Amino acid sequence: PTVPRAGSTLLGYIGIDTIIEQMRKKTMKAGFDFNIMIVGHSGLGKSTLVNTLFKSQVSRWSSGWGGEHKIPKTVEIKAVSHVIEEGGVKMKLTVIDTPGFGDQINNENCWDPISKYINEQYEKFLKEEVNIARKKRIPDTRVHCCLYFISPTGHSLRQLDIEFMKHLSRVVNIIPVIAKSDTMTPDEKNEFKHRVRKELETHGIEYYPQNEFDDDMEDKNENDKIREAMPFAVVGSDKEFQVNGKRVLGRKTAWGVVEVENPNHCEFALLRDFLIRSHLQDLKEVTHNIHYETYRARRLNDNGGLHPISANNTQESNL
Amino acid sequence: SRGYVGFANLPNQVYRKSVKRGFEFTLMVVGESGLGKSTLINSLFLTDLYSKDYPGPSLRIKKTVQVEQSKVLVKEGGVQLTLTIVDTPGFGDAVDNSNCWQPVINYIDSKCEDFLNAESRVNRRLMPDNRVHCCLYFIAPSGHGLKPLDIEFMKRLHDKVNVIPLIAKADTLTPEECQLFKKQIMKEIQEHKIQIYEFPDIEDDEDSKLIRKIKERMPLAVVGSNVVIEVNGKKVRGRQYPWGVAEVENGEHCDFTVLRNMLIRTHMQDLKDVTNNVHYENYRSRKLAAVTCNGGVDTSKTKNQMTRSPLAQMEEERREHVMKMKKMETEMEQVFEMKVKEKKQKLKDSEAELERRHEQMKKNLEAQYKELEEKKRHHEEEKSNWEAQQRILEQQKLDASKTMEKNKKKGKIF
Q1: Which of A104, B121, B199, B284 is most buried per CB count within 10 Å?
Q2: What global pTM score does this model have?
């Protein structure tokens, strides 16, 4: 085969660079899916935070207080989908809540239902992929990101936190956040973050963005900065208050207003920018190229090869 | 008209004696780690019981529930208080927290038992009161409601100790959230029929207003701090945030002052009284009633015994015990006699044996003696025979020599 010759100078404008615009148009028309799972014991402000992140009532408790927050006896998986639009781009956002996690007296293996759910989504996707008559666009229900909420004790990670993240960091992208961080003064926050990072390191827990998946130096530098700042200490709110003539999202206490988007008050803005404005696509790619592929390889090896399912879905495979 | 007798001075005398004696108070704090328990205790008693060097949860190695007590002597205005703080590190921190309340229950019961034993002793001069007078239970500020662990713990402890639930780290809640949270908690407490410490009704009008105010604010939402910050020229204890300072002693910020006043300034004695009159008495009657249900007694008997008073029961037991002792005594005597007989028999047997042997030996000796006698006689006989022979020979020799002499004289020598 002939090797393409290295760039000859162009004599005029061809228009190759318009491919980016074409891709953008297509993506906008198609819209895209994003599936985010939130995990943490009850009372850590998970639903509020997700609503704040996407500036819409996308969580289970969209009605705010008034719902019966009854703690279920076992861990349940509740997925709620909304289509939100911004700048012509449509996103089908699915928020997967896990009520009951960590709330019982005995929380042994409470991560099993979660693990099962994640693998089930991979399985669904795999089945579609292996089909003879495949859909043009396979519906993607795989969990792209798992926000794990750490209780702001100010001391260290709890045993349950370590167990969960150890079991699941190899299966899904985990982004740990420190919940309700308006409980800590700036000094306490820094100390806590430092201790938590050390503990994660000691236990070999690779949170997203994982070290090993950095593509190049540019990525590595950017991601290093992010890794150093994690876990983000966040506060969520869907209420607005007047502060210095501006309307801000925040929480009003008797001694002041906690401004959610003020970087001096908490790191919500950092999380939002990281999660949505810069790494959203990367989260999906890592899920697809790495986590899903790992699952697929394991499944194929286990079964000694897959038989594709015929068009009328008769069970020929041993999937 | 009656003159002034002077017993109106009695309260003063009681007061003076109490002050001289000093006071004791035992306070237990329970809650998962990271709820600011140590900070709150430091704030309440303005001490450094939990200093920076105290090994906090991040340094804790043991992963089981411990019960630890620390004593501190607090002196104020001539009054001395021996304060014992009982901490429960590890509570609710494991993945599986089943029965994590058991060490707490065991501790409380053991202190009641100590007191019961001390009370029942003959010499009761020194009777220290180490019973737990109050248990502060810390609820995480989730804003939703009680957790299963909270409910389980309070249900098991409300009839053993005065339980005062507190909302920890209350500066995490806005005023509205706090109100809703408190309502929800009280609702759940009532649903589960948990009896938290009730403030006693006092006839005094002013005090009852105060108490009603406290009751409305239950459970108390607290914030602790010993860091002094300057706010508007005033020095206050509080927590400094970028958006403001949460003041610990400001009634509009949290219920810390309510807790402190209630716990120390107005209801400390009542907490001790309720502990003594209600919780301790419950323990005592439960413990003594258990005396009737001994192991090995058939159920029909047990039923009757349940209605008898403990004293009658104790008398019955004493009688039983004495009978048992008597029986044991006769048994032992029997055994003793039997053993003596055996020994006697043995001795007799060996005596008989010895006698027999003695006889035998005697016989042998006699036989030998006879033999020897026989030999001796024989020997004597031989000896006399031989002597006789010798005499004859001598005579012959003499005769022979005489004859030779005669023959010599006659010159018949050849």
Answers
A1: A104
A2: 0.74
